[in-house]
Amino acid sequence: MRSLRLLLTALVLSAGTLGQRARRIAIVGGGPAGAASAYFARHELQQHNTPADIHVFERLPRLGGRAHVGTVEYANRTLYFEQGASMFIGKNRHLVDLARSFNLTLCPHPCTLHPADKRPTDDDMVVDAGMLGAYGIWDPLPGPVSGPGRWVVRRHGDQWLRDMLRALWRYGGLGDLRRVRRQTREAVDQFMQSYDQFSRPHDGVYASWDAYLADRPALQQSLYYRAAELYSHGATRISQRFLREVVSLATRVNYMQDVDSISAVGAHISMAAESDEAYSVAGGNHQVFDSMLGHSAEVHLGKEVVAVERNGTGYRLVTTDGVEDGVFDTVIIAAPLPLTKIRLPEGLEDLKSAVKAEYVRMHVTFVIGTLRDDLFPSDTLRLPRLVVTPYGTTLPFNCLSILACLDGTQQCGRPGSLALFKLFSHAPIDLPQVFAHVQWHRRNTWHAYPRLEPRNGNKYGGGEGDESGAFHLPRKSLPPIVLDRMDDAGVFYVNGMETVFSTMESQTVAARHVVRLALFGENFPS
Ligand SMILES: Cc1cc2nc3c(=O)[nH]c(=O)nc-3n(C[C@H](O)[C@H](O)[C@H](O)COP(=O)(O)OP(=O)(O)OC[C@H]3O[C@@H](n4cnc5c(N)ncnc54)[C@H](O)[C@@H]3O)c2cc1C
Ligand SMILES: *[C@@H]1O[C@H](CO)[C@@H](O)[C@H](O)[C@H]1NC(C)=O
Ligand SMILES: *[C@@H]1O[C@H](CO)[C@@H](O)[C@H](O)[C@H]1NC(C)=O
Ligand SMILES: *[C@@H]1O[C@H](CO)[C@@H](O)[C@H](O)[C@H]1NC(C)=O
Q1: Cβ of 304 below 6 Å from ligand 1
Q2: Where are the domains of the chain?
Q3: Taking the model in full, what pTM does it have?
Q4: Number of Cβ atoms within 10 Å of the Cβ of 45
Q5: Which GO terms describe its molecular function (predicted)?
Q6: CATH number of 22-64+285-357+479-520: 3.20.20.70, 1.10.3210.10, 4.10.400.10, 3.50.50.60?
Q7: 249, 389 in Cβ contact below 8 A?
Q8: Which residues are registered as beta bridge partners of 124?
Q9: Residue 473, SS3?
């Protein structure tokens, strides 16, 4: 009886597409890229009236990958905080539109709200840190925290005019800001062309990231320069001070790198993040990816893929539990290959060096406590929301931000007041060096994102300022998308895109490109 009902259901489900075999797709990884691969594959195939059988394999017992929420109880309230990827900007169309379509709450970053909260409702004690000034550059002179440091720059937030006048004076007008903004806008606009391409049914298919970038010259060129080089020559030259205090601040906060090592693309993306409205999803960004997967795939949690093998006309997956049932037409790897132990089909050993990328090892520390009051000059009445150490400084941290004030509005930002803090650092934080009192803390370490270096390494170091010369050098290819192909089947790789830059949004965009290529090939039917 039961099997008859199943059979009938199957017949009804396949009625519209009778005779067509379901496309079997395996996706490795349940982070932003894996969720988007499943979601967009489901959509594309639906539009072509092709049935799909989509499976997602995730090593961890949870979805979201580097989008991973944490919680802590304080004063009868649950505070939510992002342990990894925390924010996205209003221009990030996939994340913004999808969050809205799933009825999730977009919350100004940083956000400690519960998923059901619709807007910050400050109770008596827990106060949103949004009232504080934007940022300050704090120099921990003279040694690793042995006396009060010095404010190099401080934005007060509540004194907008004073902040602006000071900035105008400090950076000699608005010229540098304009030059940087123009570069940022060009790169971001070219990235955003992807959305228009997706809206055309036959567009947005690239066989490689190199082909993708060839259509986006501002991004492509910026990938072969360090930020410091781009901004030291010709028409894009800006002052060293603006470079180190504004551009490097953004790259330090977003990618843990200074302007003299990060690629110019990394600087553009960091500047975009710092100059647009930033949001998080109340209760955790991972909910966007959970919801994308909930509608589109069968999810297998706690299953680590250890090998992809050719099998007849398709592929079999081997996980830590053994060989998975069935043969897949398409395998999409949506995790950083250099960090996994996945064995690829025979003959693909050379891919190891092609997909190589060094991931930034970083520490994220959360603390409920009070800061040492001897860190800051004694006339510091209120701290800014974000405290960044200067260019080239990594101790005691790269940056420290206040996520929520826990002593009420009056005390919010006062150096000795209780707050929920987040710190980014290259080495584990030595808590007593920074905090007078710690009530609670949590430490995370991540392989956060690839080091965003210019693709050709240091070849342009100490150049003569002849930018055009740089482009005559051979360009090192980006990691491949197509790892293996047999007739209609293939193995595809999303995370090579991360070596250009790494964000949740760009990984969903990369996944959508890869899905189109995997399902329809380069000769996308129009
Ligand atoms: C501290 C930190 C801060 C960040 N801040 C931001 C930010 O503010 N904004 C932003 O947009 N981005 C930010 N990022 C970057 C962002 O997290 C990444 O760009 C994004 O998560 C990449 O998505 P992904 O799906 O490609 O990879 P991941 O998120 O890493 O997901 C890959 C998934 O694959 C799984 N997996 C790996 N190997 C296997 C295997 N063999 N079998 C099965 N499953 C496997 C992993 O467990 C993981 O769940 C930050 C990252 C970190 C660490
Ligand atoms: C938490 O809730 C308990 C029980 O409702 C109450 O007695 C206590 O005062 C609350 N604590 C705070 C800090 O609000
Ligand atoms: C979102 O909310 C609207 C209105 O309340 C509702 O019609 C819709 O079904 C909800 N969508 C989801 C995905 O929950
Ligand atoms: C396909 O995989 C199955 C199960 O591992 C195995 O028995 C079979 O021999 C394989 N076939 C080919 C052609 O590799």
Answers
A1: yes
A2: 22-64+285-357+479-520, 116-196+217-281+359-450
A3: 0.92
A4: 22
A5: prenylcysteine oxidase activity
A6: 3.50.50.60
A7: no
A8: none
A9: coil
Alpha carbon of 185 to ligand 2 centroid (Å): 49
The tens place of each residue's pLDDT in the chain, 526 residues long, gives 444 444 443 433 443 444 578 999 999 999 999 999 999 999 999 998 999 999 999 999 999 999 999 999 998 889 999 999 999 999 999 999 999 999 999 999 888 988 877 555 556 677 777 777 788 999 997 655 567 889 998 877 667 778 888 888 889 889 999 999 999 999 999 999 999 999 987 788 899 999 999 999 999 989 988 999 999 988 899 999 999 999 999 999 999 999 999 999 999 999 998 888 899 999 999 999 999 999 899 999 999 999 999 999 999 999 999 999 999 999 999 999 999 999 999 999 889 899 999 999 999 999 999 999 889 998 888 999 999 999 999 999 999 999 999 998 889 999 999 999 999 999 999 999 999 999 999 999 999 999 998 887 655 444 444 454 454 456 688 999 999 999 889 999 999 999 999 999 999 999 999 999 999 887 654 4
**Which residue type does 94 have?**
H
Beta strand pairing call for 52-58 and 298-301: parallel
Tokens of 414: 């006062």
Q: Please give the Cα distance from 443 to 234 (Å, whole number).
A: 44
Ligand 3 atom closest to Cα of residue 291 = 13
Structure tokens at 308: 């992809």
Atom of ligand 1 nearest to the CA of 289: 25
